[in-house]
Structure formats: C-alpha cells, structure tokens
Design goal:
Layout lengths: L1 H20 L3 E7 L9 E7 L2 H17 L6 E4 L5 E5 L3 E7 H7 L1 H4 L4 E4 L4
Parallel strand pairs: 2-5
Antiparallel strand pairs: 1-2, 1-6, 3-4, 4-5
Helix pairs in contact: 1-2
Length: about 120
C-alpha cells in the first residue's frame, strides 16, 4: 500500500508537468476517492488544437512508459476532441475547448477536491 501511494503521488506530479511541457491549458486534478470506486483521481487539461492534443497525449504516453507505467486503456475520438488514458487509479483526460465546455467535468465531479495546476 505504501508503494502505491508513492507511485500515485509521483504520477499526480508527473502528468501535469508533462502536460505543461506541451503547453496544455487549464490543468486540474480532481480527487474523487470519496465519491466513486471507478478511480481515485482525474487529471484534466485543455488543448488548443488537434496537433497539440496529439503532442500532449504522445508525450504523456511515452514518458509514462519510460517510467514503467502503461495505461490500462487508451481511448480517443477520431477527431481527438477528447482523449482518455486510464492509469488504473488515475484517469487522464485531454479535451479540446468545446468538448471540455460541453462535458463540464469540474461541475460533474464538483464534490471532489479540485486542485488547479499553475502554468509555467
């Protein structure tokens, strides 16, 4: 259990940094441990374009694999409007502006603990 927490803590720091490396916007970590058994955390960000979405997700995937973590599932839309990467207890979401506005994850999971990540 201690190792899992260290790993989770490390991933919660690493993924937002990787998002920032590719200029992602509006990065948010939502702690949903008390709300659902689906996952422990969501990490969200917004991309300004399809190439940027691809760059963000590829960067996360590559760096996480180098660190020894592979996603349980990797889902995207054909237009890359929303990409989800499932790292078991952490699910990463990369949205374009319109899709993030439409689904309003922060409102949907508003009872969770929401932490905004400051841009570099």
């Amino acid at each position: 259990m201690i190792k899992k927490e260290k790993t989770t803590k490390h991933i919660l720091k690493l993924i937002p940094e990787l998002m920032l490396d590719r200029k992602a916007l509006d990065i948010v970590v939502i702690d949903v441990r008390k709300l659902t058994s689906l996952t422990d955390y969501f990490i969200l960000c917004t991309s300004e374009s399809t190439p940027q979405t691809k760059a963000i997700t590829n960067h996360i995937y590559k760096k996480m694999r180098e660190a020894g973590w592979r996603p349980n599932n990797f889902e995207d839309t054909a237009t890359l409007e929303w990409v989800a990467m499932d790292y078991f207890n952490i699910i990463v979401h990369v949205f374009n502006n319109e899709t993030r506005d439409y689904y309003q994850f922060e409102r949907l999971w508003g009872d969770g603990v929401i932490k905004k990540i400051n841009e570099k």
